[in-house]
Design goal:
With about 350 residues, the protein is α+β, with helices and mostly antiparallel strands. The protein has two domains: about 1-250, Thrombin, subunit H, CATH 2.40.10; about 260-340, PDZ domain (Pdz3 Domain), CATH 2.30.42.10. It has seven helices and 18 strands. The protein has helices at about 1-20, 35-45, 45-55, 70-75, 240-245, 280, 300-310; strands spanning about 55-65, 75-85, 90-95, 100-105, 110-120, 125-130, 155, 165-175, 180-190, 200, 205-215, 225-230, 260-265, 265-275, 290-295, 295, 315-325, 325-335. The protein has a six-stranded antiparallel beta barrel with strand order 1-2-3-6-5-4. A six-stranded antiparallel beta barrel has the order 7-8-9-12-11-10. Strands 13, 14, 15, 16, 17 and 18 form a six-stranded antiparallel β-sheet that branches. The chain is globular and about 65 Å long.
């Protein structure tokens, strides 16, 4: 039955591919054929692999602390997916569990199990949940995201049978306005519904990415191809043991400024400020355009983040040049460790 469903989905994807404009490969005739990639997925991924992988997915529900800063953008009730790494350990995307007061998962057998936040890493965006009782399902093995190439066939999986055959449209830098930067993220087409915390697996069934976002240009070439952004699993591997043992990565933290930005033809625009965060306290305002960090000019989010992080660890002073209307101003922010701003739990 799984094989039939997958094959049917592959045909739909292939039809959509034919209807889409030129994608990540930019129409290069030497590129692999996405339709062929979908056929390859159907032939390589056995029903046993799919069934085993689906048992690894859990439904995740969280309620954030009432005074959580992240409630302003994420809401206090959040739902998504998680991936079993062990019977009591679940991997997910971090925004689902950030400042979570209550955590519950539903495994593939429909059993509801309580859990607690076990680890969070703002640099990668990964989060871990430790369950108070073991879930039923297979632990998913970690694969090699570096080995993925454009047009490679993959399968996106969510809880309770949610799956979407897809192909890799691009692997490229990603910058998010919440002070987040990946040197290389994985982009896929078509998008999967309920992408947060979804598993991206390669044909052997190993995990290569965790679902983060819906994007409107998965190819990255302006073609308007919708898809998803997945965080590559390779950047979890060096810190996984630290997250399990300590709840966070070891070593100094990056400076956090509490500024949400977006990028356009004017440069780096301030969209919102975290109340009583470093930017707010320094007098940065919504609508300001950040033009420099110290002596370094910036016009993109990536340039802004790298310049700020290059100044030192959390606690370092970060001088910004901003354009406000016709005026150029200089403000200095006292950065903090982002985790120090998280709301305290009200339940234990």
């Amino acid at each position: 039955m799984r094989a039939f469903l997958l094959f049917s989905a592959v045909l739909c994807v292939a039809a959509n591919v034919n209807a889409q404009p030129s994608h990540a490969a930019g129409g290069d005739a030497k590129s692999a054929d996405p339709k062929a990639a979908m056929s390859a997925l159907a032939s390589k991924m056995t029903p046993a692999v799919i069934d085993r992988a689906l048992t690894s997915l859990v439904k995740l529900k969280t309620i954030a602390a009432p005074n959580a800063r992240s409630n302003a953008t994420l809401g206090n009730e959040r739902e998504g997916n998680g991936i079993l790494l062990a019977p009591r350990l679940v991997l997910t995307i971090g925004y689902l569990i950030m400042e979570a007061d209550e955590v519950e998962i539903t495994d593939h057998k429909g059993r509801k199990l309580p859990g607690k936040v076990a680890g969070f890493d703002s640099q990668t965006g990964f989060g871990l949940v430790r369950l108070l009782a073991p879930a039923q399902g297979e632990a998913m093995s970690l694969g090699d995201a570096k080995a993925l190439k454009e047009n490679d066939p993959v399968l996106a999986l969510g809880a309770h049978g949610n799956m979407a055959p897809a192909f890799v449209t691009s692997k490229r830098e990603f910058s998010g306005g919440w002070e987040y930067l990946l040197d290389e993220a994985i982009f896929t087409f078509p998008p999967i519904a309920d992408w947060g915390g979804a598993a991206l697996i390669e044909p052997s069934g190993k995990l290569v990415g965790v679902g983060s976002l819906y994007v409107r240009d998965a190819a990255g070439n302006g073609s308007g191809m919708p898809g998803n952004m997945f965080v590559p699993i390779d950047i979890l591997k060096p810190i996984l043991d630290e997250l399990v043992a300590d709840g966070k990565r070891r070593g100094a933290s990056r400076p956090w400024l509490g500024i949400t930005t977006f990028e356009d033809e004017d440069g780096v625009n301030v969209g919102r400020l975290s109340k009583q965060g470093p930017g707010d306290l320094a007098g940065v305002e919504r609508g300001d355009i950040i033009t420099a960090v110290g002596d370094t000019s910036v016009r993109t989010l990536a340039e802004f983040y790298r310049a700020a992080w290059a100044l030192g660890n959390a606690g370092v002073s970060v001088p910004l040049t901003i354009k406000r209307g016709r005026n150029d101003l200089t403000v200095t922010l006292k950065s903090v460790d982002r985790a120090s701003q998280f709301a305290a739990k009200t339940s234990h």
